[in-house]
């Protein structure tokens, strides 16, 4: 006979599995890039979220907040712009919770991301790749203005985005480092991850230094990141929240993505490699400390990129 299994406290939906991602020790890459042995470098592996990226956190937060307020009800369509990962999170959660999902996305999004979105049943509206994420935002706003029956999630301006990291990501980092974190850094896209995590960490310990990273030029290949000086600035972005910024070159991020895979066994996406570059820049200048960054996704959605075969 089969014994009865108690699953009362086990995850029962994909939403239950969002968050609580592991913290990886990047000891080898730190040593290779001149970080003192007295400085620890860690990274949150966000591809352990059910749709494969950090965007599960804000997507779930936005959906739950909209359900509570009555803005999102059964049978409705969720609309937003995306560069890929947020759309995948919406599509996964929409399928699980019974919502149609309509997304505006630059036409040059990786084929892997497009395929995943279609697998989840999302409706895709491709926008001019030369206009980047801003072009997708403009198109989503136009659709929302013309169709008041949709719920426009508006990830760039929705406070539930940064609140997901305030209530989740920051607390996980604090507990996983046993309150020893001294520095936090990650890249800027919607800015929700950096703003929300920074606000909570500084409440927990005002001495924690938080530094963002962003592309060094408006024309870059760091998918999902924004060059804030030249882009449409998200309403949730708070420049005063952190303690500084580090500029990252696209080519350096590509090279480090390959190095992370080949020396640490960490197969991260381009934005993750960019965040590690920022963390390395911070860590090299320290004598002691615990530096934490975040890897938004893994490299599987970028396999069509030629740079993986280079070097």
Description:
The chain is α/β, with parallel strands linked by helices. The protein has two domains: 15-49 and 168-309, Rossmann fold; 56-152, Rossmann fold (3-Layer(aba) Sandwich), CATH 3.40.50. The protein contains nine helices and ten strands. The strands form two sheets. It has a six-stranded mixed beta sheet with strand order 1-2-10-7-8-9. Strands 5-4-3-6 form a four-stranded parallel beta sheet, with helices on both faces. Helix 8 packs across helix 9 (270-284). The longest helix is centred in the middle third of the chain and has 18 residues, at 159-176. The chain is globular and about 55 Å long.
From the 3D coordinates, which CATH architecture of the largest domain would you assign? Answer: 3-Layer(aba) Sandwich
> Which strand order do you get reading across the main beta sheet?
1-2-10-7-8-9
Q: Strand share of the residues?
A: 15-25%
Helix-strand makeup class: alpha/beta
CATH T-level fold name of the largest domain:
Rossmann fold
Assigned CATH class of the largest domain = Alpha Beta
Please count the beta strands (DSSP E, at least 2 residues each). Answer: 10
**Computed Rg:** 19 Å
Q: How many domain regions?
A: 2
Q: Element order, helices and strands?
A: EHEHEHEHEHEHEHEEHHE
Oligomer: single chain
Strand count, sense and barrel status of the largest sheet are: 6 strands, mixed
């Amino acid at each position: 006979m089969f014994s009865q299994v108690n699953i009362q406290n086990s995850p029962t939906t994909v939403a239950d599995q969002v968050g609580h991602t592991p913290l990886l020790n990047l000891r080898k890459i730190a040593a290779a890039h001149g970080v003192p042995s007295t400085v620890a470098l860690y990274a949150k592996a966000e591809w352990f979220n059910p749709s494969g990226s950090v965007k599960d956190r804000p997507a779930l937060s936005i959906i739950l907040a909209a359900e509570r307020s009555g803005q999102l009800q059964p049978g409705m369509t969720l609309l937003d712009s995306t560069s890929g990962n947020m759309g995948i999170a919406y599509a996964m959660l929409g399928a699980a919770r019974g919502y149609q999902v309509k997304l505006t996305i630059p036409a040059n999004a990786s084929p892997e991301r497009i395929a995943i979105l279609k697998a989840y049943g999302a409706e895709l509206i491709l926008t001019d790749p030369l206009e980047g994420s801003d072009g997708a935002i403009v198109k989503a706003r136009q659709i929302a203005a013309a169709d008041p029956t949709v719920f426009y999630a508006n990830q760039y301006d929705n406070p539930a985005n940064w609140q997901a990291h305030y209530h989740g990501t920051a607390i996980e980092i604090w507990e996983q480092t046993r309150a020893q974190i001294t520095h936090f850094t990650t890249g800027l896209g919607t800015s929700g991850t950096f703003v929300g995590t920074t606000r909570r960490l500084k409440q927990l310990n005002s001495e924690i230094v938080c530094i963002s990273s962003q592309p060094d030029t408006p024309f870059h290949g760091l998918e999902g990141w924004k060059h804030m000086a030249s882009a449409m600035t998200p309403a949730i972005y708070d420049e005063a929240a952190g303690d500084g910024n580090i500029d990252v070159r696209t080519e350096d991020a590509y090279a480090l993505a390959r190095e992370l895979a080949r020396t640490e066994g960490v197969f991260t996406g381009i934005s993750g490699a960019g965040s590690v570059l920022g963390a390395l820049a911070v860590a090299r200048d320290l004598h002691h400390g615990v530096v934490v960054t975040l890897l938004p996704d893994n490299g599987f959605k970028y396999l069509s990129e030629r740079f993986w075969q280079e070097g």
